[in-house]
Amino acid sequence: METQIHQTLGTNILPSHYDLLFEPDFKTFTFKGTAYIVVSIKEPTKTIKLHAKELQIKTAELRQRNLSLAGKTHYNPQKEELTLTFPQAVHGQAQIHLQFTGRHNEGMYGFYRSSYQHKGKTEYLLTSQFEAANARAAFPCFDEPAFKATFDVSFIVDRNLFTISNMPIKKEKTLQNNQKQVSFLTSPRMSTYLLYLGIGNFQSIQTKHRHILIRVLTTPEKIHLAPLALGYTKKFLAFFEKYFQVKYPLPKVDIIAIPDFAAGAMENWGAITFREIAVLGDEKTSVAVKQNIAITIAHELAHQWFGNLVTMQWWDDLWLNESFATFMSYKAVNDAFPAWDLPLQYFEDTIADALSADEIEATHPINVHVNTPGEIDEIFDNISYDKGGSVLHMLEDAVGEAAFRQGLTLYLRKHAYQNATKHDLWTAIQEAKQENFVSTMVHGWITQSGYPLVSVKKEKNKYYLSQQRFSLLGKQHSESWIIPLRYFTDQGKAGTTILREKTTSFPSSAHWIKVNHGQPGFYRVTYDAPLLAQLGNALRRKKLSSLDAAGLENDLFSLMVSRQYSLAEYLGFVEQYCLDAEYPLNSSISGHLGWLLRLAAGSTLEDAVRRTSLLFHLEQLKKVGWRRVKNERNTTTLLRSQVISNLGLAGHAETLKKGKELFQQLQHGHGSVDQNLRSTIYLLAARQGDEKMFTYFIQQYQKETLPEESRRLLRAIGMFRQKAFVEKALAFSLSGVRLQDSYMIPIMISLNPGMNTLLWSWTKKHWPQFLKKFTSGTHMLGTFVKTMSSCSEEKMENDIAQFFSLKKNMRDDVKLVVKQVLEHIEINRRFMERN
Ligand code: BES
Ligand code: ZN
């Protein structure tokens, strides 16, 4: 078997139980900790290695029956390894006893602190974020997913504080000095990265699913925004129990909103944490944010089975966690809200996203070897999430929904409370399907970078298909894949086949054929010119489903970026066939035209792109209008903002004028403005804003407490046209914005045409500071590099390359991102040159 049990600590010593006690100090933000770890030692040894990070070890002892040995400690900060050495060798069952102290940092990893305002005062809560490798920053431990153990957690804290861990409270004992000792029930066997520690003035609301207690917890002034999440959680929990045919195994699940949070959410078993914007909302919340809340809750709930109950053996199978959670979240939300069109949105958010992440050379296979925490952190990317999710979607389509689902049930039941690899999953699905091709088919998609481009041509009543890895740079590659392929013809005939070889052919009298019918496959398709024209006509005459139409356009766009079609041909295609496009085609085109307009800004191509963009978006505006109608589809609501923003960015005078009017109405509290359009209106206002308006946005932001409104204001702050305000906005992002949101303004500025050079000099200047502020576990540093992906100048490319060639500027968790950005700039440059 190719996957090893990758344990950097070796397998001689296996932990089976942890007994942990934490005593935090809210004044100094330090904590005292005690850990008893039950281990079993196979071969006699004098040394024991564990992980630890930023901890002071006070005492270390090994106990075994009547024996008690004091240990010497040695710490290797590079490897984050603590070695305990004892005077004599020990084997068999033993207990490691450690006393230590640590700090509640502000960097959003380990056992950290988060601040919020309550009755006008700044207060703190303590919370933890351990994935991937930061449990070791809270207590010395065997910090790898395969070292599963049971946990007893206790806290000594002030009596008035609320405490949370993975399990319900077992008992509370009153202590002196207004303190209490809280102990939680023993957890099931689980990995360290899923442990949770939470202490603070939390408020909660609750409900039940069967006997399972569901709570939503927030800081005191946000509890009115909790009911939405409570309802979603209850629905999705029931869905997953039914879908997996495996009961949720813990007595409770907590949904916890944390004011400072690096990622979007984290699936700690039974104590799931979220950024506020990803969980808090009410009836005024916009459709976009509401959907995101639902998807995020469903995603983390899916992990309670996929990841928590059954865990990957090592991080090289991280995608098993993340792609399943991605894939399952859409299923759960779709089940509860079929009118949201999530299967269509899955194409846009997951499949199309993955196709574009995986068409560059600097991509990586889904299955990738990783060793250091930095390398592990780096693979939480759209390959693990979205390509993984797309391949699962394709697999489900190939084996059928029933066999797929039954395979998952088998897998979850067989490996519950254990670790597993992808092979275990394929075996289970094969068992359900009673066929052998699953692992052979899936193999190529998991282990190879990229995906195929299937070329289709027709000669005399015969169709010829061939495959070749698709590369935006046009590099030649030799990979090939086993492609389960659906097609659809003008005669209304749908069929399937498997493309196993590089080429194949079949006779058919069809005038045209649409390959990847319904877009279940993870590949692109290119057609010879006569076929493409026929497909275009079929599209216009609504003979293609909206997914097929979107797939066609999406592939065409990438083929254009890779210079197999010209810009003029692409724009022509949009104008000729797609003006009254429906979702998801319209949204896809809108995104692409926006991208083109940014890239072309200031060049000779700008006018042509703007012309098509105005034509297309005005045509769409006719359909969606400025006003939301009752019961309209979410996808229409979302599109409206996209269309109007694009018109504004393309400088459409009437749209800008209307935007300004609506903004004034908002400012003066007149009329009723659709919450869904608020962000767009701010953007239109900012595009025409002056100093007064800039100051207004800043002041509003400083006062605002609603997470969604804060985000809207922050976005607007980055969208002014004047360089002076862009500079001010960047300065503000460092001084006036929470660390968790500090990339928001830079991201907006990267979407603000003509500001790239300014943004890059600012990034360089503050880089040393960023390296310190955004530790590797927060996944945030890469976002600052990514903002450069839409540049196209050679000068910029060289400067970025030169900057990161200096060792002091480079770090493990951004290595790949830097390569990707450089490649994007090269692709953009060549694209501009060709056109
Ligand atoms: N397990 C991740 C959270 C995480 C990400 C921990 C990176 C450590 C490093 C969680 O399940 C997740 O995927 N969260 C997503 C949200 C989701 C809806 C895609 C996130 O944070 O973006
Ligand atoms: Zn996840």
Which descriptors would you attach to this protein?
835 residues; alpha+beta; nine-stranded mixed beta sheet; five-stranded mixed beta sheet; 27 strands; 42% helix; binds ligand BES
Q: What would you say about this model in short?
A:
By secondary structure, the chain is of the alpha+beta class. The strands form 7 sheets. Strands 1, 2, 3, 4, 5, 6, 9, 11 and 12 form a 9-stranded mixed sheet that branches. A 5-stranded mixed sheet has the order 14-15-16-18-17, covered by helices on one side.
Please give a structural write-up.
With 835 residues, this protein is α+β, with helices and mostly antiparallel strands. It contains 25 helices and 27 strands. The strands form seven sheets. Strands 1, 2, 3, 4, 5, 6, 9, 11 and 12 form a nine-stranded mixed sheet that branches. Strands 14-15-16-18-17 form a five-stranded mixed sheet, with helices on one face. The longest helix has 20 residues, at 815-834. The relative contact order is 0.06. The structure holds ligand BES and zinc ion.
